[in-house]
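Lab notebook page, bench 4
Experiment: in silico fold of construct C2
Operator: M.H.
Input chain length: 86 residues
Purpose: comparison with the prior construct
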Amino acid sequence: MAYNDQTMLCHFRLLRGARIPLHAHPQAQNGYMISGKVKFMDAKGGWFIALPGSGWCFDGGEQHGAEVLEDSEVVEVFSPLRPDYL
C-alpha cells in the first residue's frame, strides 16, 4: 500500500485453509485483522486466534506462522521494509 526505507504498509487477503509455516525475518511485524479468523503460532508452541479488531506484533527474528481459519483480510506494517514484497 505504501512504503519507505523505514516501514512498509501491506494489505493481504488470505484464503481459508492457507498455511504460513513457522518462519522468521529481520523486520518487526505489526498487524490488524479487518475480517476473518487466523490462528497464529510461535516456535514455543504458543498460539492465539486473531478476530476482527485484533492486533499483533512480532519482533524481528521472532519465529511465527499462521493457519487461516476463515477467508481473512489483514493490514500489516513491517519495519524496516521487506524488499521481497516490493
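Observations: The radius of gyration is 12 Å. The longest strand covers residues 64-79.
Next step: discuss at group meeting.
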